Every structure is written in C-alpha cells, then in structure tokens.
Amino acid sequence: MPTSQQDGGGERLFHGGAGDGDGDGAAVAAAARQVWVPGPVIVGAGPSGLATAACLKARGVPSLVLDKDATVAASWRERTYERLRLHLPRGFCELPLAPPFPPGTPPYPTRDQFVAYLDAYARAFAVEPRLGSRVRAASYDAAIGFWRVAAVDEAGGAGETEFLSRWLVVATGENAVAAWPAEGVGAYRGAVMHTSSYKRGDEFAGKKVLVVGCGNSGMEVSLDLCNNGAATSMVVRDKIHVLPREILGISTFGLSVFLLKWFPIKWVDALLLIFSRLILGNIEKYGLRRPKIGPLQIKCSTGKTPVLDIGALKKIKNGEIKVVPAIHCFTEDGVEFVNGCREDFDAVIFATGYKSNVPSWLKEEEFFSESDGFPRKAFPHSWRGKNGLYATGFTKRGLQGTSYDAAMIAADIARRWTKSLAGPTAAADADHHETYIAN
C-alpha cells in the first residue's frame, strides 16, 4: 500500500513486489519497489530532456527526469574536448522558453559556456533530475496501461526502483555512447582512445598521432594536436564536404537557413559550393574528395553534417596535418593503409562519432529501430509513437530539432493531462486520495 509522498513531481511510493506484466514487461517487473509518477518519465538529462521538462512545466505538467550520470548534461561536461566550441552561432543553439545567452557570450560559445547555459536553464525551470539513476529496462504494460521503467541507483546503493507512468519520453539522444569501428585495433600496442575521452593536445606533444575520422570532431582534434606539437595524420576514407564556417562574415549555417526560404535546396547547395571554392580553394588535391550530392541534400537525407572549417584546412594545405587513406589493418606499432604503406604511431584517436543506446534498454520494436536506435519515422514525425511513447533529440537537426520535439511533446502530453483531470480517477488524485495500482 502507498506509504509516503515523494518530492520531485508528486511521486507516490509503493512497497511490495511488482506484479506480472505482459510480454517484455515481465522482465522489467522484478524491481524491489515501485514509484508511480503522475506525469511523464523522461530518460536523459541533456539538452533534450531539460527542454522537454521545461516545456511541460510551463504547461503545468510535472515530470520525472532520470539520468545515469552524476551531473546534468554530462556528455557536454565530461565527454568533450576542452577546445570545443559550438559549430553554430549561439542564436541557433538556444533552448525553448529560455532567454538568450548572457551578454558578452561570443558568437560561437565554448563548451564551458554552453554547459553554464544548460545549468542556468535547469535552475530557471526548477528541473531537478534524479541523477545516478541508470535505466536498465523500460517496457509498456498493456494490462495496466503504464510504462514500467526499471532504474538502478548507481551511487546511493538504493538498489532498483520501478517507475510507473502513462508517458515515457526518450531523451537520451543521438550521441549517447561512443561508436567504435567494428574491426578493432588488433595487435596494436600503442595508446588508443575515442574522442569522447580526449581532452587536450598538449598531452601528445612530440608524439606521432593518427586520428581516425574526418568529421568536425576529427578535424578539430587534429587541429588541436597539431597546434600542440604533435605530428598528426588524419584518416580520410569517405568523401566529405568542407565548408567555411562563415561566408562574407555571415554564418554559413545562418546563410543556408535564409536562402532555403527562397530557393530550392539544389540551388543553395550550388551557391555554397561556389563560395567554398572561392574561399577554401580546390580541396580535392589535398585528398579531400567532395561527394556529388550537395552538403545540404546529404544532411537532409542521411543526417551527416558537413565539416565547418575553423583552421584545420590551412594545416592540411601546408602539410602540418597529413591526410592518409583508409586503414587496412593495425600492426604492433602502427597501421598498414589500403595502399600498402605502413607507418608507426604512438597513439590512435578514433573520431568515429557516436550512436544511440536506446535498443539496449527500451523493450519496444515498432517506434524505434533496433538497428540504429532512432525513430523509424523521419522528421517532423519522429517525436511521437504509440501508448504514450515519445522521442526528443533524434531529428539529426541539432538543438533546433530538439526544441521542436520538446514543444510538440509538451503540447501533446498537456492536452492528455488536462483531459485526464476531468475524469474521476484524476479528480480523486487531485484530492490526495490514495491510489493503488493492481498488478
């Protein structure tokens, strides 16, 4: 029976064993205790989770935010390199309902400035996530019409708690875990890391370093290594678009957004490539081959972001960053490339991106794809599934996509929330009568 009212969104605690669920719900129902959450459970306390909780609160809907890490926005705070700046101007990186960045913030905020912005955002909307709560599994129990979310207390030693809610918001995002190449590093004996562990280049001064990957992270890490005295090589396996970060003093991204209001995407791509050729020159002679499809068309179809150059290309042109082909295999002291050449390296840094972790914990196969952990529906229809399941931060459109998702989710849940308050069960809850969920 219910014994206590908890803080943080009006949870009620239920002691006793969990009952049997349908299908996969049975695997989740072994929690030591149950907590009923009147509003939605949001998994993830990054920008997506914070934005959704803030939008819900603005509409009068409480929520419970769970996150496995010990801090808000841990991916930004702990798994990014020190030199990182936002690739887009600050105006395109603001979360919904929030004031602009503080006066004096540069056009492209640093990592620490963005983290401070997120901290201030959480305080402004009184979003207090339950940190250190790793969601082990979540599934929908059709017998009671609730989501069962089993979370393990990583720090407090409180064991496992099962949260029950009519709504589940998946806000773990596109970059939940580091993506490593399938082939591994074999017999290589040197230092190996992913960019999620990379902090600063002075740790590699005087060393030969191979960066595997040529996206924005690969380019920036290579530049940082080079600026700190490392002999840097960068693997370029695929064709890529490299664009200047600014064109005639205007953000390339902002210019693209403006032009797309008036012209077809193919025309905008053509114009961007003309400007890039004039500003950057012919990059293909340096081993950076461009795809035949334009940068915006690729972004829309695959989500792959073009590289916005902040100085790495100059280092490539003068030979300070060496462009090398794909890796055939690793050796004890380095690698053998596909062209047959071998080279020794002191360290290898994988700039191979990130991936969703949703398939590892969400027991649902219709809305989310098991292959990549993304919603099966494309933007702008990727935010809502069935049975009260929602997704935010999976649009491949950055923080603007997150803001769109958060606003749509909050509006939909608030409508259902208001409707439920008119019912007898909700009225009883409002009068603080005890509610028992039969299992």
From TrEMBL:
GO terms for molecular function: flavin adenine dinucleotide binding; indole-3-pyruvate monooxygenase activity. Its EC number is 1.14.13.168. Transmembrane segments: none annotated. InterPro entries: Auxin_biosynth/cation_transpt, FAD/NAD-bd_sf. Its cofactor is FAD. Keywords: FAD, Flavoprotein, Monooxygenase, NADP, Oxidoreductase. GO terms for biological process: auxin biosynthetic process. It holds the Pfam family Pyr_redox_3. It catalyses: indole-3-pyruvate + NADPH + O2 + H(+) = (indol-3-yl)acetate + CO2 + NADP(+) + H2O. Gene3D superfamilies: FAD/NAD(P)-binding domain. Residues 1-20 are annotated as: Disordered. Belongs to the FMO family. This is indole-3-pyruvate monooxygenase. It comes from Oryza glumipatula. The lineage of its organism: Eukaryota, Viridiplantae, Streptophyta, Embryophyta, Tracheophyta.
